[in-house]
Design brief:
The structure holds two protein chains of two kinds. Chain A has no helices and eleven strands. Chain A is mainly beta. In chain A, β5 and β6 form a beta hairpin. The radius of gyration of chain A is 13 Å and the shape is globular. Helix content of chain B is 0%, strand content 51%. Chain B is an all-beta fold. In chain B, the strands form three sheets. In chain B, strands 2, 5, 6, 10, 11 and 12 form a six-stranded mixed beta sheet that branches. In chain B, strands 3-9-8-7 form a four-stranded antiparallel beta sheet, with no helix packed on it. Chain B is built from no helices and twelve strands. Classes of the chains: A mainly beta, B mainly beta. Chains A and B meet through β4, β5, β9 and β10 of A and β5, β10 and β11 of B.
């Protein structure tokens, strides 16, 4: 059982380039999220989705777009990368509702460097 | 707005010492959820515990224990008899209503270094 898989794991971009991070989960979870982790700031929510075909903005959505065309996949796009987007990106998924533990299942992270 | 403060940036202990990680939160929600996650050097994030705001009972799981005090808005985490494998960054996080699962506000994290 793979859980949450992120690709690519590492990427170096030049300012202005575009790229897409792919997140795939095989747990049939309804909710999916993209977080970024920066030193001294913990994790901050970029965008999230509560089901196939839905997306919503999190705390730091500017400069990113997302899509959830299939339940198992959640894509994070950078249309014009900026050095401020250098970060480690984590995808996560969870089941909705109060009966679960509230556990987020995280991917291994994707380290993005923008030069 | 919700806020989580982990004032300790780094804690260094010698193996077998106890270590307590502080977490103070702010929220206007009457129902909320508190979490602790562990991030070992390998980088993945591991769920440790969830605590509901209406359940102030402290919890112990092996060498781990959590002290939730609603009166002081704190949710502290203690590792008893620390081991080298406990070396990691620990994050405290705060969630809102049931519909907000995953929309967590994370603290900045506390780096725990356990030396033999």
């Amino acid at each position: 059982n793979a859980g949450v898989t992120q690709t690519p794991k590492f990427r170096v971009l030049k300012t202005g380039q575009s790229m897409t991070l792919l997140c795939a989960q095989d747990m049939n979870h309804e909710y999916m999220y993209w977080y970024r982790q920066d030193p001294g700031m913990g994790l901050r929510l970029i965008h999230y989705s509560v089901g196939e075909g839905t997306t919503a903005k999190g705390e730091v959505p500017d400069g990113y777009n997302v899509s959830r065309l299939k339940k198992q996949n959640f894509l994070l796009g950078l249309e014009s990368a900026a050095p401020s987007q250098t970060s480690v990106y984590f995808c996560a998924s969870s089941r909705p509702g109060p009966t679960n533990t509230g556990e987020l299942f995280f991917g291994e992270g994707s380290r993005l460097t923008v030069l | 707005a919700q806020k989580v403060t982990q004032a300790q940036t780094e804690i260094s202990v010698v193996e077998k010492e106890d270590v307590t990680l502080d977490c103070v939160y702010e929220t206007r929600d009457t129902t909320y959820y508190l979490f602790w996650y562990k991030q070992p050097p390998s980088g993945e994030l591991v769920f440790l515990i969830r605590r509901n705001s209406f359940d102030e009972q402290n919890e112990i799981s092996g060498r781990y224990s959590w002290n939730f005090q609603k009166s002081t808005s704190s949710f502290n985490f203690t590792i008893t008899a620390s081991q080298v494998v406990d070396s990691a960054v620990y994050f405290c996080a705060l969630g809102g209503t049931t519909d907000s699962w995953g929309k967590l506000q994370f603290g900045a994290g506390t780096q725990v270094v356990v030396t033999p």
